[in-house]
Amino acid sequence: MVETSRPVVLDGVRDLATQFLRAVPKPTQWRTLTLIGSAFPKSMGLIDRESHDLVDRTEWLVWRDDLYARRQSLQRMPTFGDCAIQHPVGVERFDPRIMKASAAVRYALDDEWLLIKGVSTGVTNPSAQFPKLARQIVSGRLSKFYVGASHCAGCDGMSRSAAGAPKLGSAEAWRRLGTIHHLTSTTEQIVRLAWP
Description:
- By secondary structure, the protein is α+β, with helices and mostly antiparallel strands.
- The protein has five helices and five strands; from the N terminus they run αββαβββααα.
- The chain has helices spanning 6-23, 58-68, 126-138, 153-162, 171-194, and strands at 34-37, 51-56, 79-82, 102-108, 112-120.
- A three-stranded antiparallel beta sheet has the order 2-5-4. A two-stranded parallel ribbon has the order 1-3.
- A hairpin with a 3-residue loop joins β4 (102-108) and β5.
- α1 crosses α2 (58-68), α3 packs across α4 and α4 packs across α5 (171-194).
- The longest helix is centred in the C-terminal third of the chain and has 24 residues, at 171-194.
- The protein is elongated, with a radius of gyration of 18 Å.
């Protein structure tokens, strides 16, 4: 497991968000006000090969547990925003034609991301790795985290990949499936807050 000092990180992000919102001039006069953050790791290098880990969705935890919880006392409640399952710095300068990455699954949970890592695509072809990783989450040792194929198109694609469906064995396909699941899950979380 990745070692984190959760309370320290949460307190720091909470303080930063509070200071930022205090610095916004005339917050009630803006057409929109959105607070966007990303705690998604800059690199999947923090996960060992052929393993998994959980990483806090810190921006979500701070928005939900601090800002939303005290929305009545704020001059204006900011809309939530994040960078989904990619660090905002992105993957500039990464050329998949000559550089190899490890196959990886990025799966949003309520308070964390489940990160599952295979091996380098230079060692094992991604079309062989992604179905194996899919089986871990759909029906294997990590299935307690899987919300089911009917949850969204992303989860359905993961289920189909685990069953060997074609065209779901690439990093691009899995980034799409994970993003669909993340957006669906986050939208559901916001809806549950607003209309419990």
